[in-house]
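SEQUENCE AND FOLD
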Amino acid sequence: MNDRVIAAFDFDGTITTSDSFRAFMLDAAGPARFVTAALRCLPWLIGIAPGWSQRGPTKARFLYAALGPVRREALEAAAQRFVERRLPALLRPEMLARVAEHQALGHDVVLVSASPSIYLRKWAQTVGIGTVLASELEWRDGAYTGRLAGKNCWGPEKVARLRAWWGEHAPATLYAYGDSRGDREMAELAQHAWIRGESALPPLAPAGGFGAA
């Protein structure tokens, strides 16, 4: 009998109180370079909401405008500093507790986010999350190219990443946690979905409990 239970969590606005990518870039680039990059990328940034520009390429463009062809080891170090010093202040205690509750019940917890994996994986390790499905930066000869490697992990891509990850071992029960339009498809895939502000957190059951037959 398949009794696998997976809990898929969005990160920004779900586990955090605000956009972690913006906070990471401000921390890594500093205020002056952050503002300069924002001004250079303004046409693309303001075009995201009405759909004139794509989220993923715009995010990649902004990172390059702020940091240029940064070396991977330098950005890894910046990511580690961010996770240790700045990110904790953005975390929601009640959602960290929810992650721990799933883990205590034997559920597989996975982070599914459009933000870059370069700092998400470092943070996930601190709370015992072993799987991170996120946007990946493209590197060439150890330097950032200004592009994403693959698709932005947003909307339908979140479902595609989840399906590719579990392959033939689809869960009997999927919990999905999100906060925005980018999480809708993932929520629709789940038996138990929660979008911030729309409903109370769903009750939990151990692996092999309700919905797992």
Notes: The CA atoms of residues 12 and 18 lie 6 Å apart. The chain has a mean pLDDT of 92. The chain has nine helices and seven strands.
